[in-house]
Structure formats: structure tokens, C-alpha cells
Amino acid sequence: MSLESLKEHIPDYAKDIRLNLSSLARETGLDDQKKYGCFLASAWATGNAALIRAIAGEVDGKLSPEAVNAAKAAAAVMGMNNVYYRFVHLASAKDYKTLPARLRMNVIANPGVDKADFELWSLAVSAINGCGMCIDAHEAELKKHGISADQIQTAVRIASVVNAAASVIEAETAAAA
């Protein structure tokens, strides 16, 4: 499966999602590893099986096995961190801000790919999961690595469109059941 075959399953009422998938796949503001890693990490973060298969098919041959693993790892570790740090941020009690997380997140220090790529994928997943604290932390790291605001915005655009595609697919599947 690929993005083209996935777009065939997105109905006309969501035509904008199809068009955005196409334009983002042609995006040149990010190199292929950053771009396709964002697509894959975002798909993995949604948990939508059809979307994951389509995007995995699309990135096949465009990402190294190490990059595929790192994109999945970004989705996995951010799935944990986004919940924890969103809680820390939203909790009224300030005690939690001073306590160590005590969660293993070794992959962040050694993701197996360029640190900036992993941070970008982590930011995309954090945007999907709605963790402002993680968004701020990853954006600051990306700026230190020389990633521009346009590139960061592109990653979040990919995340938003992939997330919307997952929502449409889920709704259509539910309606057909």
C-alpha cells in the first residue's frame, strides 16, 4: 500500500486531506529522511492500521532500517512522555514539576539517527498528542540544531494531515460497520 492507494479510501468530503497528503509528500523544505520519518512517526502515533500500512509502504526504500526504527521509537517514547509531561504541566499541584520523571527514555539520547531528525519526529508526535511542554522542549532542541521555523511548521503540517487522515479512516470504518 502507498499514499496513492490510501487517498483512494479518503472520501470526497475530506478532499482537502487527500490534496494535503499529496502536496506534503512533494514537500522539499525537509530532506527525505526528515519528511518520511515525520510521516511514519505520525502514522505510528495515530495507531490506525490502514494508515500505518500505507505510509510504511510509501517510506519503504526511502528510509533506512535505522530511520524506520527511530521513527517508531519516537512515536513510542512520546506516547509515554506526552501523557506524563502533559499531566505535569496541567496538574494544579506544583510538586510534580520538581519530581524526577523516573521513566526510561534512553532512545532520546541514542536514537540511531541524526539527533535533529529524531527531535523533529518527536515534535510531530507531541503535536498529535497535544503536549505543550514536549512541543516547547523539542522545538528548543531543534532550534539549537539549526532547524528553521519553516521546517518545524512542515513537520507539524505533516502530523496534522496524517492525524486527520487517521480520523477520517476511523470514522468511515465505524460508519461501515
TrEMBL record:
GO terms for molecular function: disulfide oxidoreductase activity; hydroperoxide reductase activity; peroxiredoxin activity. Antioxidant protein with alkyl hydroperoxidase activity. Required for the reduction of the AhpC active site cysteine residues and for the regeneration of the AhpC enzyme activity. The active site is at C131 (proton donor), C134 (cysteine sulfenic acid (-soh) intermediate). It comes from Glycocaulis alkaliphilus. Belongs to the AhpD family. Disulfide bonds join C131-C134. This is Alkyl hydroperoxide reductase AhpD. GO terms for biological process: cell redox homeostasis; response to oxidative stress. Its EC number is 1.11.1.28. Residues 96-175 form the Carboxymuconolactone decarboxylase-like domain. It holds the Pfam family CMD. InterPro entries: AhpD, AhpD-like, AhpD_core, CMD-like. It catalyses: N(6)-[(R)-dihydrolipoyl]-L-lysyl-[lipoyl-carrier protein] + a hydroperoxide = N(6)-[(R)-lipoyl]-L-lysyl-[lipoyl-carrier protein] + an alcohol + H2O. Keywords: Antioxidant, Disulfide bond, Oxidoreductase, Peroxidase, Redox-active center. It comes from the Bacteria.
